[in-house]
Design brief:
The chain has eleven helices and 14 strands. With 391 residues, the chain is an alpha/beta fold. It binds iron/sulfur cluster. The site of iron/sulfur cluster (SF4) has 13 residues, from loops.
Amino acid sequence: MAPDSARSEIVTETRTALVGLSRDALAEAFRAVDEKPFRAKQVWHWIYHRGATEFSAMTTLSKDLRAKLEKHFVVGRPAIDRVQTSTDKTRKWLMQFDDGQKAETVFIPDDDRGTVCISSQVGCTLTCRYCHTGTQRLVRNLTAGEIVGQFMVARDSYGEWPTPTDERRMLSNIVMMGMGEPLYNFDNVATALKIVMADDGIALGKRRITLSTSGVVPEIRRCGAELGVNLAISLHAPDDDTRSVIMPINKKYPLKELIQACRDYPGASNARRITFEYVMLKGMNDTPAHARALIKLTKDIPCKFNLIPFNPWPGTPYECSDAATVERFAQVLWDAGFSAPIRTPRGRDILAACGQLKTDSERLSAKEQRLKDAQEAEAAQAAWAEKEAAI
Ligand code: SF4
């Protein structure tokens, strides 16, 4: 583990940040300072294709115009509070925004791709029990600029500017799977992702972007219609009793509604399957009967599973299922014809589970929470035992 750099000052800025403005909003900002919309197009290209962070670098603009832009605007990037790079090359940033709030971004390199995991909120309103961020209260939604800015900082870090014109990108994929529930901040997430997808800038196609949700059913349809990105669902259990313990949002949007929203998701096909994320929790959701129930639940959906060995964090009520149990679980899914890779844990030496770097947000009392979790888990397991015989 290596702390690569640190920056902690809070920037006080009154000029308008351009990163995160939609194309129309950028043109409007230029009109407001008596500049023609085509100038906005030029600046868009400098910011999102060339990666310019200062107006002084925009050498196709006149000196006078650069000075004028400098007076009214800033390009805008999150600051970096902390960076850690794992021995397996996973890199994690704690980003700091203009008001001092912080959120995490993670880069996970693979042989044929590199995925940037982006946060959508500071903290979270939800309390998924396996998730460290779920112990931190929601502070606020991130703006569109703060969301797209995380990806831009990651690209700064690897010098991936200007945008590569061929398919060989180091930072080739985005998952909206960091801190927060992206569908509870949909407007800002949508603006940010539309900027990322725009052809004359970062130009990352929708097939390279995955939005992961805990299951906010009404917004899943909107996400499909407006963005058309890949969908991942944090599923984690095949029955309402168990899932409501692991993910209390299940009480609001139970499995029947969630699975129907997946069936209806526009663009889902065998070529673009929905991903069901499934964290392996010892004694909670990891038996062959759970796997068989999953098969039954998802049988008519073009989907794949992503089995995630639980990455424990201090104070968690759960343990990771042992390797043989995970293998046995996967085998049941494989035998039924599903793709169900077991995710290799990444960045364990830098605590890369969601929310672990951000230690200064408010937390619930770990002891109190553990007691509550144990009681709920016991009740869910009893309910599951009753059902198991019927599967
Ligand atoms: S898993 Fe996502 S939605 Fe659930 S508590 Fe963690 S950050 Fe929030």
